[in-house]
Amino acid sequence: MYADEKTIRRILTSTGDTWAVVGLSNNTSRAAYGVAAVLQRFGKRVVPVHPKAESVHGEQGYASLADIPFPVDVVDVFVNSEQAGAVADDAVAIGAKAVWFQLGVIDEQAYDRTRDAGLAMVMDRCPAIEIPLLG
Fold first, then answer.
1. How far is it, in rounded angstroms, from Cα 122 to Cα 67?
2. Which of 75, 80, 113 is nearest to 94 (CA)?
3. Cβ proximity of 68 and 41 under 8 Å
4. Beta-sheet pairing, 120-122 with 98-101
5. Less Cβ around it within 10 Å: N or C end of the chain?
6. CB under 8 Å, gap of 24 or more: what pairs does 32-35 form?
7. What are 76-124's pLDDT values in tens digits?
8. d(C-alpha 66, C-alpha 63), whole Å
9. For residue 93, what is the enclosing H or E element?
10. What's the rounded Cα separation, in Å, for the pair 68 and 96?
11. 100 SS3 class
């Protein structure tokens, strides 16, 4: 319901290649770390967003979306569902084109707000699973 194939394909192929990954740190046991590596293999620039603002996978990190000094195409959200809505609102505020809530991250009100603001959105899916399926 929150992830039609057409929207998934559009975000992954034609929305842009700069992905801010919210929740990405150097903790290799976290899903964000592995997903970011997959996105990089498929040609995406991964921008880590984490309170520690540490560099990950060779990319400078930022403490918040608002701190990123260049345009972001897609905001990939790895925070819990309770925090995800605020991140989606921040994505709208910085002018992102799309928001992607990872597996298990669900906020129906944030989905509606984000779509109403004109952004493409996918919820409860993983781009690292979807991108290899594009062929």
1. 24
2. 75
3. no
4. parallel
5. C
6. 32/78, 32/102, 34/128, 35/76, 35/78, 35/102, 35/126, 35/127, 35/128
7. 999 999 999 999 999 999 999 999 999 999 999 999 999 999 999 999 9
8. 8
9. helix 81-94
10. 11
11. strand
